[in-house]
Amino acid sequence: MTPEAGFEKRVLDSAAKQKRIIEFVALFREEHGFPPTIREITRGAEISSTSMVSYHLTLLVEKGFLTKDPNSARTIVLTPEGKDFIAQQDTDGLQNH
């Protein structure tokens, strides 16, 4: 595998994890009425560790898809941009079938 291909794979893996996190946060909140914890996201989004989830949550906050209070549990909230992202993914999925 070339270095460029390895980099591309890591970027795609990272994007897939972030997509799973956003979708899981939305689904969990819909089903339970409150946001998930980092441990619940780790299990539900099938990510290897809580530190990896924390890393991706930080990136998603920076991208504007989520907000959260770093000093409190269960404060992860999808922003309008995050909801638009999920809606766009749903639309893309329907167009591909």
Label this structure with key terms.
mainly alpha, two-stranded antiparallel ribbon, 4 helices, 69% helix, disordered C terminus
Write the layout of secondary structure elements.
Blueprint lengths: L2 H30 L5 H7 L5 H14 L2 E2 L9 E2 L1 H16 L2
Antiparallel strand pairs: 1-2
Helix pairs in contact: 1-3, 2-3
Question: How is this structure best summarized?
Answer:
The protein has four helices and two strands, in the order H-H-H-E-E-H. Residues 93-97 have low confidence and may be disordered. The chain starts with a helix and ends with a helix.
Overall CATH class: Mainly Alpha
Number of helices: 4
End-to-end Cα distance: 31 Å
User: How many domains, as an integer?
Assistant: 1
CATH architecture: Orthogonal Bundle
Taking all Cα atoms into account, the compactness measure Rg is 14 Å
User: Considering DSSP H and I runs of 4 or more, what fraction of the residues is helical?
Assistant: 55-70%
Walk me through the structure:
Helix content is 69%, strand content 4%. With 97 residues, the protein is mainly alpha-helical. The chain has a single domain, classed as Arc Repressor Mutant, subunit A, CATH 1.10.10. It has a two-stranded antiparallel sheet. The longest helix has 30 residues, at 3-32. The termini are far apart. Mean pLDDT is 85; it is low at 93-97.
